[in-house]
Amino acid sequence: TTFTGPFKYVERNTAEDGSDTKVVFERNDLYWGGAPAIETLVVVKYGSNEEVDAALKDGTLDMALGIGPLTPKQVSDIKLYHSDYLNVLYSDVAHHSILVFN
Question: Which of 5, 10, 12, 46, by CA, is between 20 and 30 Å from 19?
């Protein structure tokens, strides 16, 4: 198999409905842009905001991205009470425009 991106697909776990619950990638040392510093990248689907919050706080989750993994109150609590080991970063909202011709 040929891989051209920074990570190579390793495996995935799925739920009964076929949705991904966990996908594992590993670093592609032959990536043309240079191997990434991260050796293994694991993407996990959590069932609730509470599970994401707990996993961030106990260290089993390194990052939560986007709108939805945490409630605004959970983000605020992390920023106020857990800033000694967790960082809250903000960015501009990404917008997409689509032009459709008939």
Answer: 5
